[in-house]
Amino acid sequence: MKKYKIAKLLIIFFILLCTVTSLYYGDSLLLGSFSSFDNDDVKYLRSAETLIETGKLTYKDVNKSTVFIMPGIVFFLTPFVRLFGMEGATVFIRISQAIIQGITLYLIFKIYLKLFNHKVALIGLILNIIYLPNIYITTVILTETLFIFFLVSCIYFLIQAVNTKNKKTYFIAGVFWALATMFRASIALLPVVVFFVWLMHKYAIKEMISFAIIALIPFLILFTPWWIRNYIQFDRFIPFTLSSGNPMLQGVFINNNVDYELIAKLNDENLVYTNDEINNDIVERKMASKVFEYYLKNDTENYIKWFLFGKTVNNVKSPYYGELYGIKFETVRIVHLILVILSIIGMLKAKSKEKYLIIGLWIYFIVIHIPFLSYVRYLYPIMPLIIPMVGCCLNVGASITRPYSRGRRPRRPVLLR
Q1: What DSSP state is assigned to residue 187?
Q2: Which among 18, 319, 48, 16 has a CA at the least distance from the CA of 139?
Q3: Which of 50, 173, 282, 338 is the most exposed place for a label (fewest CB within 10 A)?
Q4: Other C-beta atoms lying within 10 Å of the C-beta of residue 367
Q5: Is residue 99 within 8 Å of 82, Cβ to Cβ?
Q6: Rounded distance, CA 324 to CA 382, Å?
Q7: Which of 17, 5, 12 lies closest to 122, judged by CA?
Q8: Using 50, 70 and 90 to split pLDDT, how confident is the model at 395?
Q9: Tens of pLDDT along 101-137?
């Protein structure tokens, strides 16, 4: 069909654009250095190399096993590092990420095509292609590209599952939910959003329990080896990671302005850092709790405003973007804000029940990150999913569900096929 052909041509253009960008900038877009391993991207690559050499998942210290990161990104990078070496693999990783991101945007196009119509879907696809952070993210070696792919795949099958009540589709959605969690544990509570969607679709409690168990099975299968590994290595049950202490400690300070003097003042337990990741995580969690209680008691009004509103505004108002082709951050930030505002208007105009899954996801991403460091990278993964809502704002006819064929009302909701 014509709309699919146009979409595929746009996706090919997007993949080529991302690939050319990666080749043009090369390793100048690395966030860290291979000499000092001072940022996430080079640490992930080093972890892949160490995994190949020793069979151990490491991160900060190549001699110690870690639970600081989820293993998904390291498993993804390992084949590239094995074939091309740690430094030689970067270009091939970026090209792979360009292809994966292109597939992700095509899946989002299909989601909106089925939920609304081809105009909304095409507007959304074009906007996602010209939204520079979607290009930039393919040039940096981080968890985002794979995480978004698995998240969008999960949503694609989840929408179909909710409408059809098909057990196999719920199982597939569960597979992608588990894979997404392997890259970012923050999505582990996705069933909370699904629960509210089920309520809107008037699912019976028996149905909810049944489908929840089905979706949970692949999650348990995929995570059981991770749990066993963690128990053997650290003699405790660790479901995901033990690394939230640092972003939590930074996140309890207004505007992320860490007050080291206050930390020292409140450290009445003489908590100290060591070379042990788990100990340091405990220290930072305890100090975060102490700082939180201090500010809540001594600057209550301002602190509540910051926690409930300031953090959200900070996370939403700016894109995750590094400069490409001389296009300044402020320019992209203005475009980003316009897209966010128009997306919100589109959410209000759209009539499809399935929009509440997208809205619920956005709220989920905002709420789940409130306890942590205010950082725009945390909210980036939801942007490609909400940007097409702009189409519902710009296209008057798209504020209803998919148009009725030949004037007849469909007998059941339009489903993803």
Answers
A1: G
A2: 18
A3: 338
A4: 12
A5: no
A6: 21
A7: 5
A8: low
A9: 999 999 999 999 888 888 999 999 999 999 999 999 9
Hey, what are 412's tokens?
């059941």
Q: How far is CA 314 from CA 177, 256, 326, 359, in A?
A: 27, 10, 24, 19
The shares of helix, strand and coil residues in the chain, as percent rounded to the nearest 5, are: 70, 0, 25
Token pair in block for residue 377: 């990278």
Distance, in Å, from the CA atom of 93 to the CA atom of 91, rounded to the nearest integer, reads 5
**The two structure tokens encoding residue 259:** 């007050």
Euclidean distance between CA atoms 201 and 178, whole angstroms: 24
Q: What gap in Å lies between CA 139 and CA 224, rounded to an integer? A: 32
DSSP string, 239-297: SS-S--HHHHHHHTSGGG---HHHHHHH-TT-----S-HHHHHHHHHHHHHHHHHHHHH
Burial class from Cβ neighbours inside 10 Å (0-12, 13-18, 19+) for residue 395 reads middle
What is the token pair recorded at 301?
């009004």
The tokens of 179 are what?
Answer: 């894979």
Q: Would you say 143 and 183 are in contact if contact means Cβ atoms under 8 Å apart?
A: yes
- Per-residue pLDDT tens for 43-53? 999 999 999 99
